[in-house]
């Protein structure tokens, strides 16, 4: 599957508090409403500016902090098709795969704000069409690839009735 | 080949000879939700028609927004209560306390696999449990199936020797360590704390270390189960839950970090990241609008005792609010009986019911624009206390209490150095006479 969209650039250490602020705690059972505030404390107007299919592109340790699965869930719900970062925090990584949000670990210094990007998820190839360069993402561990390919953890368990990771 | 604590526990729980790097399916002893992550987890199970619990201890904690400040959250709480009734999952109600404090007091035990939909679930690692934070869906599946998948982590051994100087605590040690490793320095790894200083340390102080393991990115923070662990469980009528659990002498560590506690100084994590730590002397003079004493990191009885020792007979600075939140009902009762709560109230503070309190910005002490909070919590991310325009500094209970008196970040070692303590006593007496 090829994903196409524009890059929205963020820095290092984008915490789950920046992605899904605690002050909207009361909206956690109202995900569409919560999604309107996605990444609000990192970029106030992100949710209104981005278009369906765009990418979040960040530096190191994206998603550090709390275990709130709402963070990757609302990134996906807002229409972001994948997150690209130099590295991801552990719990966020696992949550994103569980909810079916693709993550790509790559050298994001080669991507700037507004660059047009195309991604081949199957091969992990990232094509920066604005700059005319190609990047390679680190492949997902097999266990996670299986879960992502099934469409997330719920779908994985529903399909196999158990964990089928190898 | 020898095994680390993580490898030992995950071998037992998966029934295979597990080593770092292996993927295992491990049985789950404790699966926990809190009120911020539970509703999503419960709905996932409803979606799958999997509304049952197989983990021996499946528990729902109402602590983050307790009591509820708004109707949406009240409705979330209702959903959790209904799930508990339907499935038999245990319910920890408003006022019972913070998930991690409740888990160590009454549920987690050495050798367990504990998964919780809260990143600081690693706290139970101090009891010698493989305890780790996950998201709602992972915990929901773990709760319903009684098992989960895990990658066996490589371990960083943190070997601590020496005696802590007066005014320096395990919080300072762990802040120092996180500053050294960086917020992602231990991502995917287990931290394993050991050495003479850890052996001598109280369980309460050990919990602080394990609690904050995740702030260096770690999956869990383990400590061997020893006599201190035994005594802690015995005092709670849980002697049967104890067992000796140590890493093998020839265990293989990815990295060994040695720290001499006697060389440590009080640490402050500056806004807006936990690894932005510096010595307290560099923060001296930063004006503080609110001091927050509490949370799953430092809201235990030992913490309240240290703070009360400093605040007894003294007053908070006029422009500095003091918010105290005991971490659990047990802590609250104990602080009540020993008169600590009175100390805080007389010092001009407010004592609130057990729970997370202002830690995550939902209620009870949200910061104003530009305001500074000195907190004993584990996180200071931008917006953490409900306002992206606020500034959160992290410190030990001693630093927090001493700073509350001075109205600015202050070095608690001053309090413990003899000459200074005399002057403090004098001022107190004078104050009383007047
Ligand atoms: S006290 Fe703070 S860090 Fe601990 S569980 Fe509650 S919100 Fe999380």
UniProtKB/TrEMBL annotation, chain A:
Domain (Aconitase A/isopropylmalate dehydratase small subunit swivel): residue spans on this chain: 46-101
Alphabetical GO biological process terms: L-leucine biosynthetic process
Record key words, sorted: Amino-acid biosynthesis, Branched-chain amino acid biosynthesis, Leucine biosynthesis, Lyase
Superkingdom of the source species: Bacteria
Pfam families: Aconitase_C
GO MF annotation: an example: 3-isopropylmalate dehydratase activity
Residues that span the membrane, as ranges: none
Pathway(s) this gene product operates in, as recorded in its UniProt entry: Amino-acid biosynthesis; L-leucine biosynthesis; L-leucine from 3-methyl-2-oxobutanoate: step 2/4
Reactions this protein catalyses: (2R,3S)-3-isopropylmalate = (2S)-2-isopropylmalate
InterPro entries: Aconitase/3IPM_dehydase_swvl, AconitaseA/IPMdHydase_ssu_swvl, LeuD, LeuD_type2/HacB/DmdB
Biological role: Catalyzes the isomerization between 2-isopropylmalate and 3-isopropylmalate, via the formation of 2-isopropylmaleate.
Record text on subunit structure and interactions: Heterodimer of LeuC and LeuD.
Family classification: Belongs to the LeuD family. LeuD type 2 subfamily.
Protein name, as recorded: 3-isopropylmalate dehydratase small subunit
Organism (species): candidate division WOR_3 bacterium SM23_42
Species classification: Bacteria, Bacteria division WOR-3
TrEMBL record, chain B:
E.C. numbers: 4.2.1.33
Catalytic reaction equation(s): (2R,3S)-3-isopropylmalate = (2S)-2-isopropylmalate
Subunit structure as annotated in this protein's UniProt entry: Heterodimer of LeuC and LeuD.
Function per UniProt: Catalyzes the isomerization between 2-isopropylmalate and 3-isopropylmalate, via the formation of 2-isopropylmaleate.
UniProt entry tagged with the keyword ATP-binding: no
Keywords: 4Fe-4S, Amino-acid biosynthesis, Branched-chain amino acid biosynthesis, Iron, Iron-sulfur, Leucine biosynthesis, Lyase, Metal-binding
One of the GO BP terms on file: L-leucine biosynthetic process
Positions annotated to bind [4Fe-4S] cluster: 296, 356, 359
Organism: candidate division WOR_3 bacterium SM23_42
HAMAP family the UniProt entry points to: LeuC_type2
Cofactor binding note: Binds 1 [4Fe-4S] cluster per subunit.
Protein's name in the database: 3-isopropylmalate dehydratase large subunit
All copies of domain Aconitase/3-isopropylmalate dehydratase large subunit alpha/beta/alpha, residue ranges: 7-407
Key word S-adenosyl-L-methionine present: no
């Amino acid at each position: 599957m090829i994903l196409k969209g524009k890059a929205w650039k963020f820095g290092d250490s984008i915490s789950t508090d920046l992605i899904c602020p605690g002050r909207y705690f009361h909206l956690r059972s109202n995900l569409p409403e919560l999604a309107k505030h996605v990444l609000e404390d990192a970029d106030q107007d992100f949710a209104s500016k981005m278009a369906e299919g765009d990418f979040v592109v960040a530096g190191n340790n994206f998603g550090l902090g709390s275990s709130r699965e709402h963070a990757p869930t609302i990134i996906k719900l807002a229409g972001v098709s994948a997150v690209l970062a130099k590295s991801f925090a552990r719990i966020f990584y696992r949550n994103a795969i569980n909810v079916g949000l693709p993550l790509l670990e790559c050298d994001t210094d080669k991507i700037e704000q507004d660059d047009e990007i195309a991604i081949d998820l199957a091969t992990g190839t990232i094509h920066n069409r604005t700059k005319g360069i190609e990047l390679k993402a680190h492949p997902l561990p097999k266990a996670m690839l299986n879960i992502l390919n099934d469409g997330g953890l719920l779908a994985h368990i529903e399909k196999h009735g158990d964990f089928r990771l190898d | 080949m020898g095994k680390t604590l993580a490898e030992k526990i995950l071998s037992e729980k998966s029934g295979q000879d597990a080593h770092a790097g292996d993927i295992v399916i491990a049985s789950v002893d404790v699966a926990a939700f809190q009120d911020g992550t539970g509703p999503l987890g419960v709905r996932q199970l409803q979606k799958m028609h999997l509304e049952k619990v197989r983990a021996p201890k499946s528990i729902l904690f109402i602590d983050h927004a307790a009591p509820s400040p708004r109707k949406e959250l009240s409705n979330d709480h209702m959903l959790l209560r209904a799930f508990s009734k339907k499935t038999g999952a245990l319910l920890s109600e408003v006022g019972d306390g913070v998930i991690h404090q409740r888990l160590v007091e009454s549920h987690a035990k050495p050798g367990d696999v504990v998964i919780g939909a809260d990143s600081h679930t690693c706290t139970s690692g101090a009891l010698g449990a493989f305890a780790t934070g996950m998201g709602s869906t992972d915990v929901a599946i773990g709760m319903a199936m009684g098992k989960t998948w895990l990658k066996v982590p490589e371990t960083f051994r943190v070997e601590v020797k020496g005696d802590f100087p007066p005014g320096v605590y395990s919080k300072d040690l762990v802040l120092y360590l996180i500053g050294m490793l960086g917020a992602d320095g231990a991502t995917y790894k287990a931290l394993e704390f050991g050495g003479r200083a850890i052996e001598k340390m109280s369980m309460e102080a050990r919990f602080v270390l394990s609690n904050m393991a995740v702030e260096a990115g770690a999956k869990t923070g383990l400590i061997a189960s020893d006599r201190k662990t035994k005594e802690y469980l015995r005092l709670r009528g849980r002697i049967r839950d104890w067992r000796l659990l140590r890493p093998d002498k020839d265990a293989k560590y990815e990295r060994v970090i040695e720290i001499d506690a006697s060389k440590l100084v009080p640490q402050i994590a500056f806004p807006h990241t936990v690894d932005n730590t510096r010595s307290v002397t560099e923060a001296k003079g930063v004006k503080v609008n609110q001091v927050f004493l509490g949370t799953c990191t430092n809201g235990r009885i030992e913490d309240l005792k240290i703070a009360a020792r400093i605040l007894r007979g003294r007053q908070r600075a006029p422009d500095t609010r003091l918010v105290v939140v005991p971490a659990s009902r047990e802590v609250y009762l104990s602080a009540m009986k020993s008169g600590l709560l009175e100390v805080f109230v007389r010092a001009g503070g407010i004592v609130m019911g057990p729970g997370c309190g202002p830690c995550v910005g939902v209620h009870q002490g949200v910061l104003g624009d530009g305001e500074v909070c000195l907190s004993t919590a584990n996180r200071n991310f931008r917006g953490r206390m409900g306002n992206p325009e606020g500034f959160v500094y992290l410190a030990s209970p001693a630093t927090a209490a001493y700073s509350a008196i001075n109205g600015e970040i202050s070095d608690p070692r001053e309090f413990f150095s003899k000459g200074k303590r005399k002057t403090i006593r004098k001022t107190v007496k004078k104050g009383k006479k007047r």
